[in-house]
Amino acid sequence: MFFRQIDNNIKLSLSIPQYAEELFKLTDKNRGFLQQWLPWLDRTKEPLDTQQFLELQLLRFQQGSALHVTIFYQDRIAGVVGYNQIDRVNQIGHLGYWLGEEYNGKGIMTKSAKELIELGFDYYELNRVEIRCAVANNRSRALSERLGFNNEGIIRQAEKLCDRYVDHVVYGLLRSDRD
Predict the structure, then answer these.
(1) How far is CA 88 from the centre of its chain?
(2) To 10 degrees, the CA torsion angle through 116, 70, 149, 118?
(3) From the first residue on, what is the mean pLDDT of each consecutive set of 10 residues in the chain (179 residues)?
(4) Whole-number pLDDT of residue 161
């Protein structure tokens, strides 16, 4: 099984259905915090929803089309990071992530995303990693910039969140940007 120890407090593990109960509890506890940016929360109503999602992610991992990773901080689930889509033909990985509110501001996501980016370039042989986030999502934008991504522009009304559409900023990091 995929496992990475980032430092004494942070480890990453391939997301498996056995994490569903704890991951759902974190999701549910942080529903108000996450709802402003994540459209799937309304469809996640019970632990079984999370379990089915994780089962689908394992299938997608097996097919090489995605990688969903659970972030542990001090042995507790803190959030997730992963390639929501891996485009093998064009060698592009689409990175997504979220943390429970109480885990923000500790450098957890910066270290975790950095590890996954390196894995994308080295193992999946990606040429490009892309992050798309809502224009007003300042934390996600700051993370993208801290990781060295380039702001490549805005896609208008790229995502429906509840009853509104939000514009996305597209951030890109190329393999050649690392040199």
Answers:
(1) 18
(2) -10
(3) 90 97 97 90 93 97 96 98 97 98 97 97 97 96 97 96 92 91
(4) 85
Check if CATH label 3.40.50.450 holds for domain 3-178.
Answer: no
Gap between the Cα atoms of 76 and 56, Å rounded: 23
Tokens 């992963």 belong to 82
Torsion angle of alpha carbons 104, 105, 108, 112, nearest 10°?
Answer: 90
Quote the radius of gyration of the chain (alpha carbons, Å): 15
Place of tokens 């809502």: 134
Closest CA to 65 of 98, 89, 40, 81: 89
pLDDT of res. 163: 84
Cβ atoms < 10 Å from Cβ of 67: 24
What is the spatial distance between Cα 95 and Cα 120, in angstroms, rounded to a whole number? 10
